[in-house]
Amino acid sequence: MIHGKKVPKDQVRVRVDRICSGQGGIPVSNLTNEFRLLAQAKENFTLWPRGLVGKLVATKKVTVKKTIKSSLDPILLPLPDHIGVMYRSLALLHSMVATMENPLTFKMPLGIVGSDVTYDFTIDKKDLVQFLNFEELDVVFMQLAILAFHSFNVVAKQQHRQPLRWFLPQAFQDSVPYDMKEINLFLCDVLFICGFYEEANGFLNKKASLTKQSQFILSSWNDTDPCGQWKGITCDVSTTVSTINLTNLGIQGTLRSFNFSSFSKLQVLDTGYNKFSGTIPSQIGNFSSILILYMDHNFLSGFIPPEIGNLTALNVLGIGVNNLAGRIAKEVGNLRNLRSLSLYTNHLSGPIPQEIGMLSSLKKLSLYENTFLTGGIPSSLGNLTKLKFLYLYENRLSGFIPCEFANLHSLTESDLSENNLYGPIPISIIGNLTNLIWLGFGDNKLLGPIPSSLGNWVNLETIDLRYNSLSGSITSTIGNLTKPEGITLASNSLSGTIPSTIGNLKHRNSLELRWNKLNGSLPIEMNNLTRLKTLQIRGNQLTGHLPQNICFGGSLEALGAAENKFTGPIPRTLKNFSSLIRLILHDNQLVGNITSDFGMYPYLKYINLSGNKLYGHISSLWGKCPKLTTSIISNNISGSIPPEIGQATNLGEINVSSNHLTGEIPKELGKMISLIKLSLGHNQFSGRFL
Fold it and tell me: Edge-to-edge, what's the strand order for the sheet holding 638-639?
């Protein structure tokens, strides 16, 4: 875009590859002198020196005044800093600075992208000269400028098209330039076209390496204008590609042909949820400006290249759900600006490098589901004081939980489950991590008591300590954990009685205490837990009655109280809670009428009432449980099997053995296509079963 006029694409594309590569040229005499004469005539001139602007401002030896004449207020961003482009810009400046008065004043508009913003730069000559050490390139740069102009117009003339006269006055076509402003605008666009072409060429090369279906998906990539309507491409105000978002497009191919050096200003690359395969090229380290890099949910293999450590500006790195192997590159520790690191669900092996503890800005660390990740949890993780989310589950990590975790004051979620961690739960981390809302230490080899300081975690919503070797009693401070969600202490060696403070958990929706050594009766305060969806207390030595109001809230979906020593009646609220999915009460001494104490359960999938003292007959309502798959009710039941039971077409197992059932076996049972196991023994059936 020049003075609001857009260069036709078909003319921009002409021989631009030859111009940008510096090939060719025409003899031009005394060009440098002519430019110097022009510079003498112009104290103020318009120029766009690309990446030089940022370098000048960084010296703090330049005064910048910004003037805005419209509501548009973009940030001045340099176009691609390819080495050739930078050197040529500096060469042009060098040829002009030598003859100008001190101090130098530059007027720098953003008119090239249609904005009305102007920057006035003032700098002393001696401070600028240090950047200009490429005098030998002066003539080369001028030749390229003239060549570009003539290349466009020669072809335009051959094709009977309008020449690009708005670039320069007619006089410049005869190598007699006289308007410095126009010359600089022209040179500016030569540089713009070169950088622009390199980016477009990088995209088109990448597209050509993909499968035909993937090329069809990217059919909008059909010319050298990626900032047009190209799918997944976003450009910044200086028409430099800043974002490549190809997520979930079904693209299949490799990253080998990707020209990483063409996108030095790229800030976001997202190739996630595709079918990219092969290795991650080491050239990925050329993305020096990238902030967000997602390559997750693909089929990438090989190692994580150590060059990943060159991406020092990176904020987010996501390479999860691939087939990566080998060790985590210790160079990851160079990414000091990283806020999120996700390498989960790969085949990474070896220890977690201590260098990860150098990522002082890290807020999320996801290394879970790498089944060959071994060794201890590095104590250096205690340096990550900004860390909020730590996911290390389903690995083969071993050793103690580091006491340095006590430094992770910002931690809100931590899941270390399904590893080989051992030793006690460090009391220090329980006392300090008061912001935790989710804790997963399950399926390890932890031992010792649950610290009473557990009650300090008043913000904790979910705690999972299942499948360990924890011992001792359940601390009464558990009653302080009044937030919703679940508490899971299943499959340990906990003993003693359930504390009455458990009744404070009236907002909890899940409580799992099964497979421990708990004894005594349930505290009456458990009647307060009316919002529970899951209550699992099976496999203990509990006695007394089940809480009569346990189903009062109507939310209960799973009740497991089997294999205890419960006596007394079936909870009276059980009949009317239609949300029930699993009911497991077997091997107790419960008493009740199976006909009147149970209702109709449209969502019920599994029921086991065997080994109790239930009586009555099987209700026809059991046939109205369309999702029921397993029914085991061996007790003291009499009467016959109702034919309506055949309407429960999903039943795969029926066990009514060891009852006092009589009559004929309904022929409807023979039509139940899902039925795999039918147990009718030890009853008093008559007739034939067809």
Answer: 638-639, 660-664, 684-686
Q: Do domains 213-358 and 580-690 have the same CATH topology?
A: yes
Reported as type and span, the H/E element at residue 197 is helix 180-208
Place of tokens 């008119």: 111
By C-alpha distance, which of 94, 142, 100, 102 is closest to 122?
102
CA–CA distance from 164 to each of 31, 192, 317, 474 (Å)? Answer: 22, 16, 45, 84
Burial of 562 (0-12, 13-18, 19+ CB in 10 A): buried
Residue 601, φ and ψ in degrees, nearest 5? -125, 95
The topology under which CATH files domain 213-358 is: 3.80.10
Q: What is the pLDDT of residues 168-219, one digit of tens each?
A: 333 333 332 323 333 333 333 333 333 444 444 555 555 556 666 766 566 6
Instruction: Find out whether 453 and 429 touch, Cβ atoms under 8 Å.
Output: no
271: alpha, beta or left? (left if phi > 0; alpha if psi -120 to 50): alpha
Which residues, including other chains, have CB under 8 Å from residue 146's CB and lie 6 or more apart?
A: 26, 28, 31, 175
481-499 pLDDT tens trace: 988 789 999 999 999 999 9
Which pLDDT tens digit goes with each residue over 668-678? 888 889 999 99
CATH class of 580-690: alpha beta
Residues in the chain: 690
Domain locations along the chain = 9-197, 213-358, 580-690
Closest CA to 164 of 144, 181, 192, 186: 186
The rounded distance, in Å, linking the Cα atoms of 616 and 135 is 105
Please tell me what DSSP assigns to residue 522.
P
Dihedral angle sign, alpha carbons of residues 514, 515, 521, 523: negative
Rounded Cα gap, residues 224 and 12, in angstroms? 9
Measured distance CA(562)–CA(610) in Å, rounded? 10
Distance CA 383, CA 275 (A): 36
Q: How far is CA 401 from CA 40, 73, 151, 385, 406, in A?
A: 72, 51, 69, 17, 10
CA 471, 476, 477: angle at the middle one, nearest 5?
105
